[in-house]
Structure formats: structure tokens, C-alpha cells
Design goal:
Largest sheet: 10 strands, mixed
CATH topology of the largest domain: Rossmann fold
Strand order of the largest sheet: 1-6-7-8-9-10-2-3-4-5
Number of helices: 12
Distance between the termini: 34 Å
Strand content: 25-35%
CATH superfamily of the largest domain: Alpha/Beta hydrolase fold, catalytic domain
Helix content: 25-40%
Radius of gyration: 23 Å
Shape: globular
Number of domains: 3
CATH class of the largest domain: Alpha Beta
């Protein structure tokens, strides 16, 4: 699916109270496009200013509580909902008839249909509570998903991937755990959502210490079993997982999801080449693309002077595979230098708790098989015999298979079950 959901500010046009009463509530239905149908649930409420707040859940997309950016009602029955992503926008136009809401949606030139029926609210299997905690001067804001009515429970803290990641990114997996008796703490990366600071200028020590602060906060919760708190990190979060363990007290288990086990510059070259080489149409194109990427990484990660890189950019601009260099003041340059010094295997060698390493075989961001072999080998040689490796066939960096005809992704069937079963055994 082209739409990658991001948290947006909620806005709404004024609407009559009668229409508001008809729209608020819980809805279940589907979106359908090109013969492909996806089950979706939706919740509509009103805030203190009597404006709409609408969110949706979709297991297929592995999202929960994603907000619509705009909700409008015209007259009694005409409803428009707008869902903004980082690349495209979906606009839903529908009609209320009793306890049904049906209509069409558009995403760029693509069209589809949707249908919802009102359902009774179900009592969730877990409660949610806002939490804040600190790492030095930085205040981090998050949500604790806590199973209801049970004695002290195990818990998982979710570490962030790269970029401006809010707590919403891990909410689906967190809700899966909380529904099965495992508490989960998700929080906004520094400088995102309710958290202060700036991830763009953070060091690896800062990011690791943020997660360590989350673990420490959980240890103060009376309903959390202090002896059974683990961490889950995907991509950058998985790569930094052993570094986080070294800076935390009492981490009981680690899930390294798509964790890089090769040098950071090699991982970057692997990722960039996989994104551009499909557009290289000749052998000469491929050779030039590789030379350009090698030079970019040498500058970004190792501080090589930019003269040759700028010359290559000038001569290769216009190639189908070409991409513009980040701006001179972009955080890419400074963070790459910081990341270049990180040696993941040195930190994995210090991990003595159970580890799950999970990858997609078709990951184009991280070399899955090589990373898994390097990390598992390091752990075993260091005396850690509780290492589980799962590489899911045909799955990509986010454990999704090629999308269906509607453009919506399909999660690798074993992904969620592997995580839940492994955690349950711990």
C-alpha cells in the first residue's frame, strides 16, 4: 500500500449535533479496491470542543488507533473523512443511513468502496495509561498498555526505528501483547509527539538511554513483574538493542527485529543500492550507481572530502537511478558519522539473556541471512545458548509480502505468531 500512515493533527468542520450523534460510535466494515477487500474497524467520538475525533484499526495493515486528519458532516447524512499519509491522501465520501455508513474513497487516481455498520463497544482486554519519564533534561511521553485484572505481568518496551517515530508505530504489536497478558510501553521518540528533545541531534548513547529510562520507569509500576521486562527493537532499534541492554538494568529478554549484524557503512550501501539499482538499465549504469553510493557513504560515514562526490553528482545527474544528495545541513551527515563508529557485534557479545532474531528473507534494507548468522554466531561464541533465529520467506523489511491487487500489504503469516509464541515461552 502506498499510504504509510503518520500521526496528523485532528481538524473538523462544525456540524449539527444530530448528525454528530448519528456518527459517533464504533463501526466495523471493509475497504474494497480492485477486488481486494480489507477488514477495518473505526471509532468516532467528540472532543471537548464537540469536534470529531475518528480513528481506525486494521489488522492487515498492523495499525491501531490511527487518526483521520479531517472529519466533516454536511446536512444530516453526508460524511467526508480524510486520511493523510506521508506520500498520498485517502478521501472517503459516504452516506449515513441508520446504522450503516457506505460510500467511495479515492487515493490519487485509484478508487474503491467502503461499508461500515455500527457495532456495540467491546470492553478491551487491557487498559491504557499515559506515562511520562525523563532522561536527563529530556521528557519522554508514552502509553502503557496493561492487561486487566491479573497479577504482576511481564512487559515489553518498544525501541524506535530510524526517523521521527511516534508511539503509534508500535501500537499494533503492543496491543497484541497486552491482549495476551503482556504489558507494553510505547513512547514518542525524542522530539516527536509529546516528547521533548531532538532525535536529529541525539547520539546513540542518548537513544539507548531513552529506552533504558523507559525500562526503569516500568520497574516502578506495581503491576509489572520487574524480573520479566524485555525490549523489542525493529531496524535501527533492533541494531541498537544490545547497546540498550548494556545501559539498562534487569532486561530479561531481547527481540532484535531486522537488526543489522554487519558494519554500519556496509548496511547503508546495501540499503541504498537495493533502492536504486532496479532503475539502472545497463551495466555501465550499475557501475556508475555503485561508484556514486560508495563515495556517498565514504563521505557520510568516514569523513572523506566531498569534492569527488560533488563531481560525481554533477556528472550523473539525470540518470534514471540518480537521487539528489541530502542538503548540507541535513541530519543525515552528522548521524552517519555517529552511526559509523557503532560495532553491533561487540555489544551483542555482552548479551546474556534470551534473544529472538527475526528477519524477512526479502529484506532490502538489511542483509538478513548474513546479519542473523553474524549475530547468532557472536552470541553463541560468547556463551549465550538461548538464541532463536527466524527468517520468514518472501517477507520484506517490515515482514510484509507483496501487496494484493488493492495495493494493501499482506503480513507474513508466521510473523505475529512467532513473536507471541516466543515471548510466551519466556
Amino acid at each position: 500500500m502506498r499510504l504509510l500512515i503518520v500521526v496528523a493533527l485532528l481538524a473538523v468542520a462544525a456540524s449539527p449535533s444530530h448528525a454528530q450523534d448519528r456518527l459517533t460510535g464504533h463501526w466495523k466494515g471493509h475497504w474494497s479496491r480492485a477486488g481486494d477487500t480489507m477488514v477495518v474497524t473505526m471509532n468516532v467520538t467528540r472532543d471537548t470542543a464537540q469536534k470529531y475525533v475518528a480513528t481506525f484499526d486494521a489488522d492487515r495493515l498492523r495499525v491501531s488507533g490511527i487518526p483521520f486528519a479531517d472529519v466533516q458532516v454536511q446536512g444530516c447524512c453526508n460524511v467526508t473523512l480524510t486520511l493523510r499519509g506521508d506520500r498520498t491522501t485517502l478521501v472517503f465520501n459516504g452516506t449515513l443511513r441508520g446504522d450503516s455508513l457506505t460510500g467511495t474513497f479515492r487515493e490519487e487516481s485509484s478508487e474503491g468502496r467502503f461499508a461500515f455498520v455500527r457495532i456495540a463497544a467491546e470492553k478491551p482486554l487491557f487498559e491504557e495509561r499515559a506515562l511520562t519519564f525523563s532522561n536527563g533534561p529530556v521528557t519522554l511521553a508514552g502509553t502503557l498498555l496493561l492487561p486487566r485484572g491479573v497479577p504482576p505481568v511481564p512487559a515489553v518496551v518498544f525501541a524506535h526505528g530510524s526517523g521521527a517515530e511516534g508511539r503509534w508505530a508500535s501500537r499494533f504489536l503492543a496491543s497484541q501483547l497486552a491482549s495476551r497478558g503482556v504489558a507494553a510501553l510505547i513512547f514518542d521518540k525524542r522530539g516527536v509527539g509529546g516528547s521533548t528533545g531532538d532525535w536529529r541531534t541525539a547520539t546513540l548513547e542518548d537513544l539507548a538511554a531513552d529506552v533504558a529510562a523507559a525500562v526503569a520507569r516500568l520497574r516502578d509500576e506495581p503491576r509489572i513483574d520487574r524480573q520479566r521486562i524485555g525490549i523489542h527493537g525493529h531496524s535501527q532499534g533492533g541494531t541498537l538493542a544490545p547497546f540498550i541492554v548494556a545501559r539498562s538494568q534487569g532486561i530479561a529478554f531481547v527481540i532484535g527485529s531486522a537488526a543489522a549484524g554487519v558494519p554500519m557503512d556496509s548496511s547503508e550501501i546495501f540499503s541504498i543500492l537495493n533502492s536504486i539499482l532496479p532503475a539502472a538499465t545497463t551495466r555501465a549504469d550499475t557501475v556508475e550507481a555503485r561508484a556514486f553510493v560508495d563515495e556517498l557513504v565514504a563521505v557520510a560515514y568516514h569523513g572523506r572530502p566531498r569534492a569527488r562526490l560533488d563531481s560525481l553528482a554533477q556528472s550523473m545527474r539525470g540518470r534514471l537511478w540518480y537521487f539528489e544528495l541530502p542538503a548540507a545541513d541535513a541530519s543525515y551527515w552528522s548521524f552517519s558519522r555517529v552511526y559509523a563508529a557503532y560495532q553491533p557485534l561487540e555489544w551483542w557479545a555482552r548479551v546474556r539473556v534470551p534473544v529472538l532474531l527475526i528477519y524477512g528473507a526479502a529484506d532490502h534494507r538489511v542483509p538478513a541471512a548474513e546479519s542473523a548468522a553474524r549475530i547468532a554466531g557472536t552470541l553463541i561464541r560468547a556463551g549465550n545458548g538461548d538464541v532463536t533465529v527466524r527468517i520468514l520467506p518472501d517477507a520484506d523489511h517490515t515482514f510484509r509480502l507483496p501487496p494484493g491487487p488493492g495495493g494493501w500489504p499482506v503480513t507474513a503469516p508466521a510473523y505475529i505468531a512467532t513473536l507471541l509464541d516466543w515471548i510466551a515461552r519466556r
